[in-house]
UniProtKB/TrEMBL annotation:
<dbReference type="InterPro" id="IPR003615">
    <property type="entry name" value="HNH_nuc"/>
</dbReference>
<protein>
    <recommendedName>
        <fullName>HNH nuclease domain-containing protein</fullName>
    </recommendedName>
</protein>
<feature type="domain" description="HNH nuclease">
    <location>
        <begin position="56"/>
        <end position="154"/>
    </location>
</feature>
<dbReference type="Pfam" id="PF13391">
    <property type="entry name" value="HNH_2"/>
</dbReference>
Length: 267
């Protein structure tokens, strides 16, 4: 998955640097971090935002903080941002498969076995080393990120149309009412802020990983696991004091299982 990149290349002259806009300087710095692996959390966030055009791939909302901090970027995106709106909660990096699961000593073996069934050993090896890679992340609004992590919606690839996805929701009235300008079908593509040569340095989300994520979401909803999760979370809110006779043992077991499962799958 990880592209080996060389950090050697033509050095920019002082005159070239002086004529760059503030956003171009920021962009060059972000692209330079692609030569380092694994990236830090701030680096993968900046890389993902740049690739996705500083907007949620589902709602189209722009990242308010990024536009606020860079006037040049704001000027380039202003016509679009007026029509699409800003993300009130800020945009977040959503993982197709969790960045924290790799800390589990059993995760490496189980991930290899599971993904090998789908002919994805190379993908599994990559994720067990570091899941903070562009193939494993998308940009989402904070609220949509939460719903994505809970398998309340997923992206189902459109046959024979690379990187085009239908947005499938378990309960559309909840998911699409959250999105100011809902798109039922999206195409994941490199931002127009990137030149063709710069796009070659980056990667779009892995289609196989996206398909596997969608399969997990469908199984969770069809099996009733998602509904069971919602009941456990409701109990967590309502139960203030645990029974002294051990009557809440089953509830605690279910809650513990839910929390550990969230670490392993959701992101």
């Amino acid at each position: 998955l990880h592209k080996v990149r060389s950090n050697t290349g033509p050095k920019q002259t002082p005159s070239n640097h002086a004529t760059r806009s503030s956003f171009d300087i920021v962009k060059v710095r972000i692209l330079e971090t692609l030569t380092r692996f694994p990236p830090t959390c701030p680096e993968i966030r900046k890389q993902t935002l740049l690739r996705d055009g500083y907007r949620c791939v589902v709602s189209g909302a722009f990242d308010r903080r990024s536009l606020k901090l860079n006037a040049d970027l704001r000027a380039r995106l202003q016509p679009q941002s007026f029509s699409s709106g800003y993300s009130s909660s800020g945009l977040e990096v959503a993982h197709l498969f969790s960045q924290s699961a790799q800390d589990d000593p059993d995760y490496h073996a189980s991930a290899l076995t599971f993904l090998e069934m789908f002919g994805m050993r190379t993908v599994a090896e990559q994720l067990t080393k570091c899941s903070d890679c562009l193939e494993n992340v998308i940009t989402l609004d904070g609220g949509l990120h939460e719903m994505f992590g809970l398998f309340e919606f997923w992206l189902d690839k459109v046959p024979n149309q690379p990187y085009k996805y239908n947005i499938i929701a378990a309960e559309p009235e909840f998911v699409f009412s959250h999105v100011a300008t809902p798109h039922r079908q999206i195409t994941l593509a490199f931002s127009s802020l990137l030149e063709p040569g710069e796009q070659e340095l980056m990667s779009l989300p892995n289609r196989d990983l996206m398909a596997l994520r969608a399969a997990c979401a469908q199984v969770a909803n069809m099996s009733g696991a998602a509904a069971q999760r919602d009941r456990i979370l409701q109990d967590e809110e309502e139960i203030q004091v645990l029974a002294s006779d051990g009557g809440h043992a089953e509830y605690l077991t279910s809650l513990l299982h839910l929390r550990t499962s969230a670490i392993s799958l959701a992101a």
